[in-house]
Amino acid sequence: MVKKILILVLLSLIVIPQFVEAKETEPVQLAVWNPVQIVPEGNSIKGVRLSLFYTVNKDVTGLSIVWLGANKTTGNVEGVELGFVNWTEGSFHGWQPGLVSYARDRFVGWQGGLVAVTEGDFTGLQSGGIVWTEGFFHGWQNGWITHINGDFVGLQTGFVNTLYEEGCGASLGLVNYADGSFKGFQGGLFNYAIEMHGFQLGLVNITKYLDGLQIGLGNYNGKKEPFEFMPIVNWSF
What we know:
Layout: H1 2-19, E1 25-33, E2 36-37, E3 44-57, E4 60-66, E5 70-73, E6 77-82, E7 85-88, E8 92-103, E9 107-118, E10 122-133, E11 137-148, E12 152-163, E13 167-187, E14 190-201, E15 204-221, E16 229-236
Parallel strand pairs: 1-3, 3-4, 3-5, 4-6, 5-7, 6-8, 7-8, 8-9, 9-10, 10-11, 11-12, 12-13, 13-14, 14-15
Antiparallel strand pairs: 1-2, 15-16
């Protein structure tokens, strides 16, 4: 009986789209593996998208769930994507949890995953194992390894936190590395910043230019004013 039902479902997904007039936006998508899906991949969904293994559409507004595979959107998403892999070619507004979560353009909301990557600007919470943002980050980034290639305003928490442009806020982890100017607080075992405007607290604190305070076992200030290296406490204002 179960096999007959599965066969009927598969046949319906193959046959029905041939007799249904295609619209630019549909309220429901049912899919097994693209192209075995009711709504063609070039059309958008505004409502619910359900898939067993893999589905592709243009824009998605609403809820998108894939049970054992990947959601792919070639345009923008507003809503929730749930799946092992969530892949958005455009911008994302909402919640995107999965083993791998990806957005090519701007992300606003909460992105989570064992690997979570946004190539554009990010506003909100990015959490998981390896979390990575290429553009400007504004919010909280939390993971085992956190990385920001653009400017940063907010909070970074992880075992290893890296930043490659200007930062403003707090970076808390075993290793905090800022390859630019950092304004705020770095707290961890090892703290490094090209320019530090604020407070470094750790076993080893290193900066090429200090405007603030360092507390740790070893503190290095490349500015050399008043001291280049000091144990316990170093400062420059």
